[in-house]
Design goal:
417 residues; alpha+beta; Hypothetical protein af1432; 17 helices
């Protein structure tokens, strides 16, 4: 194989950066990248940051990050600054290609060997891979120099591929230089480990969420009237949390936690929970215990959303004026999460048909919310809720069978004040 394609051996590149080319700025960028990526909690942010760093490190036009998935390479993220300027947006979506040793990325993934290619259109005879010009022809682009690195974990298992295209120097496209290889190899290793950890974390999160949803479905089975209630009110709660300035991660924790507000009802006897008429005094005292029972079921967990679930289970029946239960908290003594869920829960419950009542007309429900400001509900949250009523109603319509909701919800707008 001639110098137009260089197989980068780990023993040569490694992570021991060559002293004569050690660049303080690049070394500092690598350190900063490791610190930043260790704090990133979602795939999209990690991928976006990694591509920005790769472009900054090498002054290249394009970066693609692939993840290996059985017999495919999943293109998680692809950026090309030239095409973005031309098309005014990122022209790439997530895509998958076969894990084929005859493609450049496939060869790197399967051989666990990096490649530094001077010109992908002038590959020497005898190489076992080829460049497909299909994409270039489709968008009117010219790929030339390419640096392709396997992304490995600490046991050298290939997790994916980091591919850089068209390095610039002095206004021209030039090959990637030898001294840049260890920097990009270090970056590829960082990205691979971070993505693996995020994947594991997300799988664990999905497993926990699925367990919680099964738990909720069990309590819904016990209480036949709830139906889609928890889906709607949890999304109302997350929306209000977002409007208060919380980020996507916190809002998702709020959504999942608020779904557990009534989980304690799984412990309430059917004779009380499913009674079609009004509860007597003894039955009402039994029903009120679902708050403390739910709290006790969840409080020992270290999971953030189960902690929120414990909080809202205990506090969502407290009232702003201190007349609620179980602890008769008042005002800001009530946790914010409980105050939010109180409004979301009551609004959806009044809008929904139950075994003991019909659904209320929408304007009557909204008037009740207004009238309860300062007594049942936090006045500031009532104002926030009503000022975002169109988004609330959009959620209501989206997550509803339609059979048990006021017909006014089919309308496109409603007066909030």
């Amino acid at each position: 194989m001639d110098e137009s394609v260089k197989v980068i051996k780990k023993s040569a590149a490694g992570l021991a950066l060559r002293q004569e080319h050690a660049d303080a700025e690049l070394l500092s960028l690598l350190v900063d990248t490791g610190l930043v990526m260790s704090e990133i909690q979602d795939f999209e942010s990690a991928l976006a940051y990694a591509t920005e760093v790769a472009i900054k490190m090498t002054n290249c036009e394009g970066v693609t990050i692939y993840e290996t998935e059985e017999n495919t390479l999943h293109g998680l993220c692809s950026r090309n600054t030239v095409l973005e300027r031309r098309m005014q947006n990122n022209p790439f979506d997530s895509f998958r290609i076969p894990l084929d040793p005859q493609t450049i990325a496939g060869h790197v993934a399967l051989s666990n060997q990096a490649l530094n290619i001077r010109d992908v259109y002038q590959l020497p005879e005898g190489v076992k891979f080829a460049f497909s010009p299909q994409f270039d022809e489709m968008v009117g682009y010219r790929s030339q120099s390419m640096l392709v690195m396997p992304m490995c974990d600490t046991q050298s298992h290939v997790l994916g591929v980091l591919q850089l295209i068209n390095r610039h120097k002095n206004g021209e496209i030039v090959p990637f230089e030898d001294w840049q290889e260890p920097y990009i190899q270090a970056l590829a290793s960082q990205v691979g480990v971070v993505l693996r950890n995020l994947r594991y974390s997300n799988e664990l999160q999905r497993s926990r969420v699925e367990t919680v949803k099964k738990f909720i479905r069990a309590s819904e089975f016990h209480d036949t009237d709830t139906g889609l209630h928890v889906e709607r009110m949890s999304r109302f709660s997350a929306l209000l949390y977002e409007k208060l300035g919380y980020g996507p991660r916190e809002c998702e924790v709020m959504r999942l936690g608020s779904m557990l507000h009534d989980v304690g009802k799984i412990c309430i006897p059917d004779r009380v929970l499913k009674k079609p008429g009004k509860l007597n005094g003894e039955e009402w005292e039994i029903m009120k215990t679902h708050t403390t029972l739910g709290y006790e079921m969840l409080i020992d967990s270290e999971s953030p959303f189960l902690q929120v679930g414990a909080c809202v289970a205990l506090s969502h029946h407290e009232r702003w004026d201190g007349s609620g239960y179980p602890r008769r908290l008042a005002g800001s003594e009530i946790p914010l999460e409980g105050r939010i869920v109180a409004i979301a829960d009551v609004f959806d419950a009044l809008c929904s048909k139950r075994c003991y009542k019909a659904s209320w007309p929408l304007e009557e429900v909204l008037q009740t919310i207004r009238d309860s400001s300062g007594s049942h509900f936090d006045p500031d949250l009532v104002e926030l809720f009503l000022s975002n009523i169109e988004e609330i109603l959009a959620i209501q319509r989206k997550y509803s069978s339609g059979a048990h909701l006021p017909k006014e919800l089919e309308e496109s707008s409603v007066k909030a004040s």
